[in-house]
Amino acid sequence: MKIGFIGLGAMGQAMATRLLNEGHSLSVWNRTSSKADALVAKGAFRAENPAEVARRSEIVFSMLFDDATTESATFGDQGIAEGLRENGLHICCSTLSLAQARRLRDGHAERGQAYISANVLGRPPAAADGSLFIIASGATDQIERASTLFACLGQRTFNAGSDPLQANLVKLSLNFMIYSTIEQMAEVFTVNEKLGTDPGLVFEIMTNSFYTAPVHRNYGRLMIDRSYDHPGAPVTLGLKDVKMFLEAGGEQGVPLPIASIMRDRLIGAISAGDAERDFVVLQERVRQEAGLEPG
Asked: How many CB atoms lie within 10 A of CB 148?
């Protein structure tokens, strides 16, 4: 199949590599062109702009940082919408605000183009080994059309509904649960540390009893190891997601008090100089407030 991929950050790079390794014809574009070098060396075509990717592809994936980059790459000059062929499909995997998700849905519909959201759960290592979870929403026939590609990228695909916005809101909701779980673990590890109990022991008890989910095992391990500077998702990304979740709550008329706490915690981490560190560094803000020495 002729596939396009736009946005070659840590997640996009891993996902595009899997599609290329599966034998698909791959065209790629990234604002920083050098990020496409490894894929081009393996046989991908380096396009000059997103429109060229779309013209060469049956299905175009985008995995971009935020609303602004997604809007520009899709509807800007030489954007995806300009080059998307008849019966072409744009699959956006980015974590976006509901306003931007609505813009993508309606903008493509106005042009008679196919569009679905396919948000993913998992960090770059999961993208590399094809164990992501995919949350897709949009027209059922288009989700089915992409099903073999989703099977290459992830271990399971969930159909969130017929409106592309539904997948976006589910992703924002689950990202919020990750951040709030990190806050919970940080508080639990810290209060036990103050009494002299090794947080590593608390982690062992926790993840070998009732709290065995990947979010506890994976993020908890990063916190115990103080792995704040490994390649991962930065605090700035967490703040972006939580702000969008709060906006969605306001739009839907749903109070989200814990999300407000998480927004403030993330702002505090940025103010402390941790903007580009992995968001598990939130643990250090809790430890600091408890009077403990930095980890």
From this structure: 11
The strand pairing partners of 216, in sequence order, are none
- Return the DSSP state at 7: -
pLDDT of 35: 96
CB contact at 8 A, 53 and 29: yes
Residue 230 phi, psi dihedral angles, 5° rounding: -80, 160
* Euclidean distance between CA atoms 59 and 56, whole angstroms: 9
Q: Which residue of the set 171, 194, 240, 243 is catalytic? A: 171
pLDDT at residue 87 in the model: 86
Q: How confident is the model at residue 295 (pLDDT cuts 50, 70, 90)?
A: confident
DSSP state of 36: G
List, for residues 46-99, the tens digit of each pLDDT value.
999 999 999 999 999 999 999 999 999 999 999 999 999 888 999 999 999 999
Tokens at 198, concatenated: 């090794």
Sheet holding 2-6, edge to edge: 45-46, 25-29, 2-6, 59-62, 89-92, 114-121, 132-137, 154-161
- Distance, in Å, from the CA atom of 234 to the CA atom of 142, rounded to the nearest integer, reads 33
Instruction: Give the mean model confidence (pLDDT) for residues 250-260.
Output: 97
Residue type, 194: K
Phi, psi of 26 (to 5 degrees): -120, 130
Strand ranges inside 38-113, DSSP E: 45-46, 59-62, 89-92
Q: Are 170 and 160 in contact, with CB atoms under 8 Å apart?
A: yes
Q: Is 42 a catalytic residue?
A: no
Cβ-Cβ contacts under 8 Å for 35 (sequence gap 6 or more): 8, 9, 13
User: Hey, what are 179's tokens?
Assistant: 């951040």
